[in-house]
Design goal:
By secondary structure, the protein is an alpha/beta fold. It has 19 helices and 24 strands. Pfam families: COesterase.
Length: about 775
């Protein structure tokens, strides 16, 4: 096999008679290195078959056909043999890769014509001993025609004219194996590279989202305009009475002064509020809701504040107008008394920002105040059915809550998650509603503060004649036509003052005669010095004299002395049978205030009494500052302790009805005792908690900031979940939440033990 170019390790020889003779003769045979010796086997396999079989087992071979008689020259197989074969051949009969044309592979192989067409020539050998048939090519240059390369097949092992060559790349020395540490490091680098790519893609995606959101928020509908209702600086939505237009303020949509009821004018002046159920009661076109007309009311000194009778309006603050993800709803009603609410504009100053920050919808309805809202005249009762009068302002609140149920979804709110937030007079109005069958379906939780949750114990028929006859009108027409200012100026000053006589009565329709259990989760709270604003006249006069302190304490306790003669319960202050003082022959008479003597049942709070002295001495051990002592004592007696006592009784009753502890209507209680500096001094005044909740608390120190955040977080957690904390909230009969910079739970308020029998001192609205 001299001069044969060999590619790879193996080249098989083709069978021919000449090749065997030449090797046996050894005349022109060159020395070839002997292959490695293998163990002898009883089966003798021809060398060409053994080599081809070896290559077939190891894989990676290529085959080429040779002409008979050219075994000495072999087949010149180069790197071209390992390239892909040409797509087609001119002569399909010479294509070794063509499909079989018969089911018998042997016949098909024999029927395939040879690709070689060399003429056969006979010649005598030089020795003349024998004649051998040799194959001589027609050309002096040895060549193979149409030689093709392909993958080896099984029949190639038995074909002498097929040469098999192994791919030389398979016999290259293997690279040195990498160490384990190097492999781990390589995998770490590759994973790190992929992680960097992922992080980079994530950062790019976040940046794109931020850019898109920023453009959408700053464009206000000019760059993106998916919502045609938003046309900066105006926004429009719909209600059951027609479209309304509001404004964009602090990132929220603000609608001020939307009518929620028919204007109480003319024949509707002293009637319960009525919803707009007729198109004739609605507006034409789009209602511009950008201003709220205040109602007639009284200020803190009892003076008349001019307003409008057409004031049954509601303000809405919402961060969205969509229907996809409705937000919790808060309905806020406040007021220092049922005669006036001069603090409402201030408390709603930051409602728009609060709605955006806390993702809630805030609503605040106006209700009628004073004599226009609480006038129990018999002539009015006789002209309507059922025959009742009074509590017109409470009917306004009930109508406003109904309007909220019908329309809050158009403002992005959830009508199934409404929380009522009542402060002072607002809490007093809401208390009968959340306990009545018609009111508790309109709200789903309630947070009331600054007012003892009490039912009005005087029916409208037993209203004070001084109030009923104040207008000096004997007909309904006179009552409906008299000027509004005349109506508001008619009551005596003791009614118009914030600490005056109570306006709320039991009418049997809006406010039931008999109290019932609350129907929604309830949080009842107060501040530690809730009565501080009512005692401001004593702050400058209060000296170090014990007698001055005693006089101031008695004056503060007598703020509600007009309530002393109101009916009291024989059992629980909230439930049970009513016993009227002075009940003679089954007829209820208007009770008189107690006499200023020791023989009175209420002598413990009469000036100069021994019990009043004992109270001052006991509080002196708790408070050193005279002003702080006075405000704490009066607040505990009139607001804080009665509030906690009522909450405890309600919670205990509900817990008794549900001994497993899974009561559906839990009652919680809190006391805010963070002292802030205000015109009432460094005290926890009656506005500190509601101002913190509504975001208008003016913080001056870091403790103020922490306190405002604490109570606000507690409130909005209650709004979202109906509970003050995730796990094991403490009901009112087991503890009280004490709010300062932090939230602590105490079993009870120790000072309240002194006022356990003084429910007659509590403030009523």
């Amino acid at each position: 096999m001299s001069g044969v170019p060999v590619v790879g390790r193996y080249v098989s020889r083709s069978w021919s008679s000449g090749s065997g003779a030449a090797q046996r003769g050894g005349g022109d045979q060159r020395h070839q290195p002997s292959p490695p010796q293998r163990p002898r086997s009883p089966w003798r396999i021809p060398a060409f078959f053994r080599r081809k079989f070896e290559i077939a087992q190891r894989g990676g071979g290529r085959v080429a056909s040779t002409a008979p008689g050219e075994s000495e020259g072999g087949v010149a197989v180069t790197e071209e043999a390992f390239k892909d074969p040409p797509p087609t051949l001119k002569d399909p009969h010479k294509d070794p890769m063509r499909e079989s044309t018969s089911t018998d592979p042997i016949k098909d192989f024999e029927a395939t014509p040879s690709p070689y067409e060399e003429p056969e020539v006979c010649a005598l050998s030089d020795d003349g001993d024998s004649i051998h048939r040799r194959l001589i090519k027609s050309s002096p240059i040895r060549q193979i025609r149409d030689v093709t390369f392909r993958e080896p097949r099984y029949l190639d092992l038995f074909d002498p004219s097929v040469s098999v060559v192994r791919d030389p790349k398979l016999d290259l020395p293997k690279p040195a194996s990498k160490s384990r540490a190097h492999s781990i490091f390589s995998r770490f680098l590759s994973s790190l590279a992929s992680t960097k790519v992922i992080i980079a893609c994530s950062i790019i995606l976040v940046v794109l989202v931020v850019v898109i959101v920023t453009l959408a928020s700053t464009s206000q509908g000019t760059f993106f305009s998916p919502d045609p209702r938003i046309q900066h600086p105006h926004v429009t939505t719909v209600t059951t009475c027609g479209p309304v237009q509001g404004t964009i303020q602090d990132g929220s949509y603000v609608f001020r002064g939307i009518p929620y009821a028919i204007p109480p004018l003319g024949k509707l002046r002293f009637r319960p509020a009525q919803l707009q159920t007729n198109l004739n009661d609605c507006w034409t076109g789009t209602y511009v809701a950008n201003v709220t007309q205040p109602c007639w009311s009284y200020d803190s000194q009892g003076a008349v504040v001019e307003g409008s009778e057409d004031c049954l309006l509601i303000d809405v603050f919402t961060p969205q107008l969509g229907y996809d993800s409705p937000l919790p709803v808060i309905v806020f009603v406040g007021g220092a008394s049922l005669g006036g609410d001069t603090q409402r504009p201030w408390l709603l100053t930051k409602a728009a920002g609060l709605a955006k920050t806390k993702r809630v919808v805030v609503l605040s309805p106006q209700v009628r105040r004073g004599l226009l809202g609480f006038f129990p005249h018999p002539k009015l009762a006789a002209s309507t059915y059922p025959h009742t009068a009074g509590n017109q302002g409470v009917s306004d609140l009930l109508t406003a809550l109904t309007w909220v149920q019908h329309n809050v979804e158009h403002f992005g709110g959830d009508p199934e998650q409404v929380t009522f937030l009542g402060h002072q007079a607002g809490a007093a109005m809401a208390w009968p509603l959340i306990s009545s069958p018609q009111g508790h379906r309109l709200v789903h939780s309630a947070w009331v503060t600054g007012s003892v949750p009490l039912y009005p114990e005087i029916p409208w028929r037993e209203a004070d004649p001084e109030l009923v006859d104040s207008l000096n009108c004997s007909t309904v027409m006179c009552l409906e036509s008299i000027p509004a200012r005349t109506v508001m100026e008619a009551p005596p000053l003791e009614w118009r003052h914030p600490q005056g006589r109570p306006w709320l009565l039991a009418d049997g329709v809006i406010v039931p005669f008999l109290p019932s259990m609350p129907q929604v989760p309830l949080m009842i709270g107060s501040t530690e010095q809730a009565a501080a604003h009512f005692l401001l006249s004593w702050r400058e006069r209060l000296g170090i004299s014990h007698q001055q302190l005693l006089d101031a304490a008695v004056d503060g306790l007598r703020l509600n002395e007009v309530n002393y003669g109101q009916p009291v319960w024989s059992g629980s202050p909230a439930y049970g049978h009513v016993n009227w003082p002075g009940d003679k022959g089954g007829q209820n008479v208007w009770p008189q205030p107690p006499r200023n003597d020791e023989s009175s049942e209420l002598g413990s709070i009469i000036p100069g009494s021994a019990e009043a002295e004992a109270a001052l001495e006991w509080y002196s051990n708790l408070k050193d500052d005279p002003w702080l002592l006075l405000t704490t004592l009066v607040s505990d007696a009139t607001v804080t302790c009665p509030t906690l006592a009522t909450a405890e009784k309600l919670s205990r009753t509900l817990s008794h009805n549900h001994p497993t502890g899974t009561e559906d209507v839990p009652v919680y209680a809190y006391v805010s005792r963070h002292a802030r500096v205000s015109r009432a001094g460094a005290v926890a005044d009656g506005l500190s908690d509601i101002e913190s909740i509504l975001g208008v608390f003016q913080s001056q120190t870091d403790k103020d900031v922490q306190y405002a955040r604490t109570i606000q977080d507690l409130f909005f957690f209650f709004v979202n979940y109906g509970s003050p904390e995730w796990q094991s909230p403490t009901p009112a009969h087991l503890g009280v939440y004490m709010l300062d910079g932090n939230i602590n739970v105490e079993h009870s308020r120790l000072q309240c033990e002194h006022w356990s029998n003084s429910s007659h001192l509590m403030r009523r609205f």
